[in-house]
Amino acid sequence: MPSSIHPTAQVSPEAVIGDNVTIGPFCYIGAKVTIGDGCSFQGHCFVEGTTVIGRNNKFYPFAAIGTDAEDYSYKGEETFLHIGNNNVFRENTTINRGTKAGSETVIGDDCYFMAGAHVAHNCELGNHVIMVVNSGIAGYVHVGNNVLISGLAGVHQFCRVGRFAVLSGGSTISMDLPPFMIGDGRNGGIRGINLVGLKRNNFPETTVRAIKNFYKIVFRSGMNMTNALEKVKAEIPQIPEIVELIEFIHSSKRGILHGGHADSRRS
């Protein structure tokens, strides 16, 4: 089907618009924007910069997509934003491009950004990520698949959030949140396992049991991280999810959220 562009919308003739795209009243689409088939933009959406948008994405009023990095060092260099397919961007969502010349922000598929969510420059988000109302992630944050960042939560720059992790409402973290875990508070620590997410996604009971045992040893035993991981390697089957957790901790540069004590529990 042909695309529909409201007469009040301002769409650059240089923009690349796919089939069956709907652009509503008072939207702005810049010259270097590419929009895939089936996307829809309700009124007052703003899309600029070298931004590539995949198929079937929905943008609600006042979403600001592909805007300049909110970084004092950014001086107008060409940077990029790549968005996958089937994402939803609710009202007042803001997504920035990269900050250094040639760098990019990347968003995967099937993500849901609720009203006021913010993704800063050079972030990389996987698939099925949910960011709830007024949550935000700072520059260079890496978010894995199936992550839930709850309302009013914030993630410090350069942090990582592992897949199937949950950051509770109102939390702020400046350390890494490992896969499958629930983080809560102001670097408050690991408060549990995302059992609901694991069960909804059909993780085998043997895998869930191994992750539970990992959590007990690493985050509830009181052992230091080095000794806890040695115990994990000795006592828990080294299934892919356990190996993933161990490698996530070993590769951390900012430290891992602890089990409730006031230390960074670096490996």
Biggest sheet overview: 11 strands, mixed
The count of domains is 2
Principal-axis shape equals: elongated
In CATH's first tier, which class of the largest domain applies? Mainly Beta
Rg, Cα atoms, Å? 20 Å
pLDDT averaged residue by residue = 95
- Total helices: the number is 4
CATH architecture of the largest domain: 3 Solenoid
Distance, first to last CA:
55 Å
Low-confidence stretches: 261-267
Task: Classify the secondary structure makeup into a structural class.
Answer: alpha/beta
Structure description:
The chain is an alpha/beta fold and 267 residues long. It folds into 2 domains: 4-140, UDP N-Acetylglucosamine Acyltransferase, domain 1; 198-250, Udp N-acetylglucosamine O-acyltransferase, Domain 2 (Up-down Bundle). The protein is built from 4 helices and 28 strands. The protein has helices at residues 195-200, 205-220, 225-235, 240-250; strands spanning 4-5, 10-11, 16-17, 22-23, 28-29, 33-35, 40-41, 46-47, 50-53, 58-59, 64-67, 80-83, 88-89, 94-96, 104-107, 112-113, 118-119, 124-125, 130-131, 136-137, 142-143, 148-149, 154-155, 160-161, 166-167, 172-173, 181-183, 190-193. Strands 1-4-7-10-13-16-19-22-25-27-28 form an 11-stranded mixed sheet, covered by helices on one side. Strand 27 (181-183) and strand 28 (190-193) form a beta hairpin.
